[in-house]
UniProtKB/TrEMBL annotation:
Coiled-coil spans in chain: none
Protein name per UniProt: DNA replication and repair protein RecF
Similarity annotation: Belongs to the RecF family.
Taxon lineage: Bacteria, Pseudomonadati, Pseudomonadota, Gammaproteobacteria, Lysobacterales
Record has Plastid as a keyword: no
Subcellular localization, as worded in the UniProt entry: Cytoplasm
Record organism: Dokdonella soli
Top-rank taxon: Bacteria
Length: 359
């Protein structure tokens, strides 16, 4: 999958911009605050419906504007061109495919963009919500019924939590315990199957990038005691849940972890090592997507040099280049690893929200 054309209006610093992108590496160079990261955000929005940066949706809108829009032309492995678009105006999100309005989730099924950026270490050291979101994006692109099951579970969870905070009878809670358990079963199975498929790819990348830490240790945690049925767990925890007013076990508490032979806990990792782990996760997901879909997603690399030494930068560039994926990368200067590895790139100079291709 390649993003051949990208058009952006009123996104952060960018008033209006249209880019023709190369099939290989596209390198956006400029000073800090020039708008480079916003270019990657635009591509990411088409695949996730949100930014990878911290902040609400309103922060994406250019000052003085009522909304933003992003349009892209995607070339798939079959050489078909798909026209995709996403706009936010007045708090309403509108998605389009070939000029027709569609659900945002349907747009995201057509568009696959992954991003490694300075905040990616949060995937390792941050809250479990980040890791669930990462996992669920992958499952969503593999299991067409995933969203249906996820929504069913969320409805049941909302109902049970409302009962826990209200004047609930035991009979009412019994009903929603059973519904929550039924909804949780396929959701947990899909997540576990996806993680099992991701595990060997991720472990191989971690061995290459962090060989000094020993053998990787990867584990999936479903959010409840896996050896017991969830309905049984919910019944055992009912008194605690009533006291706290929320459900303490279930797929909404799922998580996964990365450890190593010499660094079994994530707290043992340095910031740089966390970032290398996060990079491995992004590329493992890209590789698995390619195995299942027959094409790589677009890979975004925002400020690759941040907190990563030259040797590891070369390893990261080599890993991405070997995949053959289309790359959108940013930097204040060209990474030395590109030239060292003989990787060619289409270069753009970015300044005050405008980008111009360099010869």
């Amino acid at each position: 999958m390649e993003l051949r054309r990208l058009r952006i209006q009123n996104l952060r610093l960018i008033e209006q911009l249209e880019l023709e992108l190369a099939s290989g590496w596209n390198l956006f160079l400029g000073t800090n605050g020039a708008g480079k990261t916003s270019l990657l955000e635009a591509a990411f929005l088409l695949s996730h419906g949100r930014s990878f940066r911290v902040g609400g949706q309103d922060a994406l809108v250019r000052h003085g504007s009522s909304g933003y829009s992003v349009y892209g032309e995607l070339e798939t492995a079959s050489s078909a061109i798909e026209r995709v678009g996403l706009a936010r105006n007045g708090g309403r999100l509108v998605a389009r495919l070939a000029g027709e309005s569609i659900a945002a989730a349907e747009l995201m099924r057509h568009t696959a963009v992954l991003c490694f950026e300075p905040g990616s270490h949060e995937l390792i050291s941050g809250p479990s919500e980040e890791r669930r979101r990462f996992l669920d994006w992958g499952v969503f692109h593999v299991e067409h019924d995933f969203l249906l099951h996820w929504r069913r579970y969320q409805r049941a969870l909302k109902q049970r939590n409302a009962l826990l905070r209200g004047d609930a009878s035991g009979a009412d809670l019994d009903v929603w315990d059973q519904e929550l358990a039924r909804a949780a079963e396929p959701l947990t199975m899909m997540r576990r199957d996806y993680f099992d498929a991701l595990r060997p790819i991720l472990a191989g990348l971690l061995r290459d990038l962090l060989a000094e830490l020993g053998e990787p240790q990867l584990a999936f945690h479903p959010g409840f005691e896996a050896e017991r049925p969830l309905a049984e767990v919910l019944a055992a925890r009912r008194a605690r849940d009533l006291a706290r007013g929320h459900t303490s076990a279930g797929p909404h508490r799922a998580d996964w972890s990365i450890g190593f032979e010499t660094a079994p806990r994530r707290e043992h990792l340095s910031r740089g090592q966390e970032k290398l782990c996060a990079f491995a996760c992004v590329m493992a997901q890209a590789h698995l997507f390619a195995q299942r879909a027959g094409e790589y997603p677009v890979v975004c690399l925002d400020d690759l040099a941040s907190e990563v030494d030259q040797a590891h930068q070369r390893m990261m560039v080599a890993t991405v280049a070997a995949s053959g994926a289309q790359v959108l990368a940013t930097g204040t200067e060209e990474p030395a690893a590109l030239a060292a590895l003989g990787v060619s790139a289409k270069r753009f100079h970015v300044e005050q929200g405008r980008a111009a291709a360099l010869l």
